Amino acid sequence: MATAKKAAKKTAAKKSSAKKAPAKKPVAKKAPAKKAAAKKAPAKKAPAKKPVAKKAPAKKAPAKKTVAKKAPVKKAAKKAPAKKRTPNAAFMKPLTPSAALAAVVGSTPLARTEVVSKLWTYIKKHALQDKVNKRNINADDKLKAVFGKSQVTMFELASLIGKHLS
């Protein structure tokens, strides 16, 4: 009785692979490898399931198209609940600048963010940004006292200012 079931499964596998052979050539090449590996009883169950699994991706392909259409809707939903960032209290605390920095920014206590923005207005007003490499700042006499060197990158700016705030 077991041999009859095995024979029925073999013929079913041959028919399904024979039907698929003209449509997909790689399936026909893989079929002999499956037969060689399908000598054990548990392995015979696997080839019967694999053609079903191969049909499933064909059904999933249209589903992927619908998912692609839904993606822009999700992006719009993500943008709607965008919250405003709350500033860090440490950056907003007013600090008094040193005498060298006060010559550029002013002597009133300012938050770190305001000091940086006033420095940038001073740099742009006096055209101290390097013409070739815009990331560099060429210091004039007032800024040399703050920076300690003649040219500074914009990334060093905040750390050099921190030394002059208390």
Notable features of this structure?
single chain, 166 residues, mainly alpha, two-stranded antiparallel sheet, 8 helices, elongated
End-to-end distance: 93 Å
The main sheet comes to:
2 strands, antiparallel
Work out the helix count. Answer: 8
Radius of gyration, CA atoms, in whole angstroms: 36 Å
Low-confidence stretches: none
Average pLDDT, rounded to a whole number, is 73
Specify the helix fraction band: 55-70%
Model description:
There is one protein chain. The protein is mainly alpha-helical. It has 8 helices and 2 strands. It has a two-stranded antiparallel ribbon with strand order 1-2. Helix 1 packs across helix 3. The radius of gyration is 36 Å and the shape is elongated. The model has no long low-confidence stretch (mean pLDDT 73).
